[in-house]
Amino acid sequence: MIELPFFEDRHREFAPALPDVGELPLDDRCRALVRELAANGWLEHAVGELDVRTLCLARERLAYHDALADFAFAMQGLGSGAISLFGSDAQRERLRAVAAGEQIAAFALSEPEAGSDVAAMTSTAQDGRITGTKTWISNGGIADFYTVFARAPEGITAYIVDAQDVEVEERIDVIAPHPLARLRFDDAPADLLGHPGQGMKIALSTLDVFRSTVGAAALGMARRALDEATAHVKQRQLFGAPMSELQLVQAKLADMAVGIDASALLVYRAAWIKDTQNRRVTKEAAMAKLHATETAQRVIDEAVQLFGGLGVTHDHPVERLYREIRALRIYEGASEVQKLIIARATLA
Hints:
single chain, 348 residues, alpha+beta, 4-stranded mixed beta sheet, 4-stranded antiparallel beta sheet, 10 strands, globular
């Protein structure tokens, strides 16, 4: 894929060392991954002038290797993305610490009754202070600061809130563990990001950059599943011959390979348009995320099937992928929301 005209030589040469921090408790492992990603040069690409193709290549490679490493990279980018795009010079100074792995960033948009329906948020901001609840916040509990969206008198507005002013009400456990929390803001001091009432623009512009990268992460997971399944069926003997000689198995592998390549084309088309044509890619990014995440779910499910009993053994590579892929079809806009975005753009 890297030989296609979507990429330049700098993309083809992008190959930082992969992080490897060993087994640690979840929060400690995430912090260690952030430090390792910084030391190996990954995080310098997650802040400042954002190149979406590089972000996608990074997430595809990291997700193939270790989904938690991909998460750590992605959240440094998403959590500070609004600052990269809309921050003042003083606020952009935070990006140095993010790129150096010295501070962990988080993006706080969702609320208990305002997930896909962002406009229903009830958190309020008045005189530079925020009151309300945010939930499903990745890096919640370990972040040093949060990019927070709240309803001000001028409309939804973006702010930066330091972790010391946030109460972690609950840590949330999910099937593929990563730091996730419900947060409480109680008259928390907040630093205005952008202009009052510009919050929806800031949130959507940030997601416009990072939504394609979710598809790239799904692509990396799907590629890993296909590689694991291919190696398995070539060595597994069934009915006196390699399992790979069965036509039903070959049909599965063919479908997996076609879906993966189609996802890759959609992901890198959206990234290329965003990087080179300087326009919104709402529809293209929605297509990329929808197809790549839904396809990865099917590919990984097929890989589990091809492994048989081994595929549902705890901590087997494809069993881990099976747990890790599921959330990607929900966060940064569920598949159903992506379909609405695509349909409305098509009708328009």
